[in-house]
């Protein structure tokens, strides 16, 4: 899939979903199919609401394998949350959204809906110290931006 990128030693291919620890901050993220599937088959109409709901439910993909294709696991379910992440995100959202969720036991979780990069040219920056998040726009790379300047920020 990535014939030119695979030549670089810095390329790290990971699973979907993926969990990583970055300087003591635990990230858990998906490419967004789990959230999009719930959006499609429920009355919830907000990606952040769905992220929060799956976090509270303790299961990041409750519709799999019924309406979301995946391998049917019989002995254990890899989508059950066993520890609370500090940052929980989904990709391919319609727009950027973020908020800090505060749990009953004092947990602070940054929820982030990362917009589809191919249509928005937007990525997200997370401050590891205070779990703040902001979008960064690379609109200079899009066809709709005629002056070629890269816009950084909101």
Automatic annotation (TrEMBL):
GO terms for molecular function: DNA binding. One of its GO terms (cellular component) is delta DNA polymerase complex. It holds the Pfam family DNA_pol_E_B. Residues 1-96 form the DNA polymerase alpha/delta/epsilon subunit B domain. GO terms for biological process: DNA repair; DNA strand elongation involved in DNA replication. Keywords: DNA excision, DNA replication. InterPro entries: DNA_pol_a/d/e_bsu (IPR007185), DNA_pol_delta/II_ssu (IPR024826). PANTHER family: DNA POLYMERASE DELTA SUBUNIT 2. Belongs to the DNA polymerase delta/II small subunit family. This is DNA polymerase delta subunit 2. It comes from Syrrhaptes paradoxus (Pallas's sandgrouse).
């Amino acid at each position: 899939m990535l014939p030119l990128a695979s030549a670089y030693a810095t390329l790290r291919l990971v699973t979907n979903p993926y969990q990583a620890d970055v300087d003591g901050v635990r990230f858990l993220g998906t490419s967004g199919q789990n959230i999009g599937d719930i959006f499609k088959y429920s009355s919830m109409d907000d990606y952040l609401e769905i992220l929060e709901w799956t976090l509270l439910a303790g299961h990041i993909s409750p519709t799999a394998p019924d309406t979301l294709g995946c391998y049917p696991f019989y002995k254990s379910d890899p989508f059950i949350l066993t520890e609370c992440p500090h940052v929980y995100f989904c990709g391919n959202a319609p727009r950027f959204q973020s908020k800090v969720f505060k749990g009953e036991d004092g947990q602070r979780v940054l929820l982030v809906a990362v917009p589809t990069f191919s249509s928005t040219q937007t990525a997200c920056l997370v401050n590891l110290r205070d779990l703040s998040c902001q979008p960064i726009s690379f609109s200079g790379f899009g066809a709709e931006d005629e002056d070629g300047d890269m816009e950084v920020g909101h």
